[in-house]
């Protein structure tokens, strides 16, 4: 193992041990019958065949949530990934690389019925993918959207503070908000850019419709603005979901729309037929100029994904998909398969 | 670019078909508010009943993003709900109703 990797592992180990020790020792003193700290997350084995070359990706994403009293929650998520990819050129064999890192580690203080104060390393609240869909045990498709990098300031997490909560929640509608400020950090585990932004969403329960807007501003170097909007719709009394996002930065823009469906017509969602989940996603990116600061492809790209997942009992999912990607740099087929197990259990036996 | 152009011309058709095909297949069906399929330990009311606030809140805020876990220990139900309160920006009322749903 090379020394940078060793120091990375050591750094993560130190950070995780300190965070875990503090959270669990405090939580131990305050835990009640229902408030035992939990371990959750996903473990999976994924494969991706792109242009005829297959990459294997074992992954574990553990999540810890430890409440301290009724108003404080310490939570964090990490990713441990090993990538086995074919050697470049025409050389036979595979090489492998490790990645291990904290995705976020934050403390939440519920200050009032309408306000939660978050401090630490948090997921940037731009659009919906980063906060809601990125965990391996949630996402329907292995690959994130092509525009996932827009508004996430390179690191997808911020180091600083965040205010979030429910403005109002009624039976006919609800509005929630998030606003954050992040400082610049070069720490390998808490890397972030100086930025600010937020998101507001309106949800209409009767029509199961959510619309929201996001804004982000990079406050270092060449300052840039990012805007986005999302629409989610889940018709009542169906298991159909439509999710979509549009995002625009100063150098690129794009959108994605994803639909998935599970039928209840043959014995419900837990019948062998109801466990199938077909998915369709389409997306396009448009480069405005050649100054890439957003992780979006340097050429205009279109892509369609056709997925078919199977929701096995015991929190296990099989993911399969075929994608066709069109770009001036070349068109390609992407075949992906995987199996993901979601775990959720108490950190220790509760009182 | 020919491929790009032809792809763009396909896009409206693909989008339309993607959005309409599932809808054509949809028929109003009994209850979709999949209560968390929680066997044994944590077992919300699953029999035919009027949908509770907690069940509605679960369907609207939790299962919109992810499938309900197959089950979990009652010792962590409060932690699960607190975590969801932060993640889904639930109101205090919604948090309490959800906790009651998970721990009837």
Attribute tags:
heterodimer; A: 351 residues; mainly beta; Porin; 16-stranded antiparallel β-barrel; 2 helices; 16 strands; globular; B: 104 residues; mainly alpha; 4 helices; disordered N terminus
**Terminal CA distance of chain B:** 61 Å
Radius of gyration of chain B: 19 Å
Helix segment tally of chain B: 4
Number of beta-strand segments of chain A = 16
Low confidence ranges of chain B: 1-41, 43-48
Count of folded domains of chain A:
1
Shape estimate of chain B: globular
Helix content of chain A: under 10%
Class by alpha and beta content of chain B: mainly alpha
Query: How are helices and strands ordered from N to C of chain A?
Result: HEEEEEHEEEEEEEEEEE
Structural class of chain A: mainly beta
Task: Walk me through the structure.
The complex is a heterodimer of chains A (351) and B (104). Chain A is mostly beta strands and 351 residues long. Chain A has a single domain, classed as Porin (Beta Barrel), CATH 2.40.160. Chain A has 2 helices and 16 strands. Chain A has a 16-stranded antiparallel beta barrel with strand order 1-2-3-4-5-6-7-8-9-10-11-12-13-14-15-16. In chain A, a hairpin with a 4-residue loop joins strand 6 and strand 7. The model of chain A has no long low-confidence stretch (mean pLDDT 90). Chain B is mainly alpha-helical. Chain B has a domain of 72 residues. Helix content of chain B is 54%, strand content 0%. Chain B contains 4 helices and no strands. In chain B, helix 2 crosses helix 4 and helix 3 runs antiparallel to helix 4. Chain B starts with a helix and ends with a helix. The N terminus of chain B is likely disordered. Classes of the chains: A mainly beta (351), B mainly alpha (104). At the A-B interface, strand 2, helix 2, strand 6, strand 7 and strand 11 of A face helix 1, helix 3 and helix 4 of B.
């Amino acid at each position: 193992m090379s020394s940078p990797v060793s120091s990375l592992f050591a750094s993560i180990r130190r950070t995780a041990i300190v965070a875990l020790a503090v959270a669990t020792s405090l939580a131990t003193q305050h835990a009640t019958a229902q408030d035992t700290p939990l371990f959750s997350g996903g473990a999976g084995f994924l494969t991706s065949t792109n242009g005829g070359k297959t990459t294997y990706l074992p992954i574990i994403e553990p999540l810890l949530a430890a409440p301290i009293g009724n108003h404080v929650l310490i939570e964090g998520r990490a990713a441990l990934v090993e990538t086995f990819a074919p050697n470049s050129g025409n050389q036979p064999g595979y090489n492998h690389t490790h990645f291990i890192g904290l995705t976020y580690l934050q403390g939440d203080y519920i200050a009032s019925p309408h306000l939660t104060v978050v401090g630490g390393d948090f997921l940037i609240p731009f659009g919906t993918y980063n906060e809601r869909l990125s965990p391996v045990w949630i996402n329907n498709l292995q690959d994130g959207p092509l525009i996932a990098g827009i508004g996430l300031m390179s690191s997808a997490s911020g180091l600083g503070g965040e205010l979030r909560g429910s403005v109002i929640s009624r039976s006919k509608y609800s509005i929630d908000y998030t606003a954050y400020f992040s400082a610049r950090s070069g720490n390998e585990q808490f890397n972030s850019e100086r930025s600010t932004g937020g998101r507001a969403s309106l949800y209409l329960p009767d029509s199961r419709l959510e619309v929201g807007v996001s804004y982000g501003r990079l406050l270092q170097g060449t300052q840039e603005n990012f805007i986005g909007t999302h629409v989610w719709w889940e018709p009542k009394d169906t298991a159909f979901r439509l999710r979509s996002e549009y995002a625009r930065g100063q150098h690129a823009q794009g959108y994605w729309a994803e639909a998935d469906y599970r039928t209840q017509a043959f014995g419900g969602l837990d019948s062998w037929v109801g466990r199938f989940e077909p998915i369709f996603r389409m997306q396009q990116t448009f480069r405005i100029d050649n100054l890439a600061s957003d992780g979006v492809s340097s050429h205009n790209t279109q892509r369609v994904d056709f997925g078919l997942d199977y929701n096995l009992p015991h929190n296990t999912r099989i993911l399969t998909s075929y994608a066709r990607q069109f770009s001036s740099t070349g068109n390609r087929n992407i075949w992906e398969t995987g199996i993901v197990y979601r775990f959720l259990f108490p950190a220790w036996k509760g009182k | 670019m020919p491929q790009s152009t032809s792809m763009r011309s396909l896009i409206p058709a693909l989008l339309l078909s993607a959005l309409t095909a599932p809808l054509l297949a949809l028929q109003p069906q009994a209850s979709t508010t999949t209560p968390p399929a929680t066997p044994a330990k944590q077992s919300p009311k699953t029999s035919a009943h009027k949908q509770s606030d907690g069940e509605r809140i679960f369907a609207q805020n939790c299962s919109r993003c992810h499938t309900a876990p197959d089950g979990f220990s009652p010792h962590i139900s409060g932690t699960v709900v607190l975590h969801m309160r932060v993640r889904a920006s639930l109101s205090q009322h919604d948090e309490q109703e959800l906790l009651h749903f998970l721990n009837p």
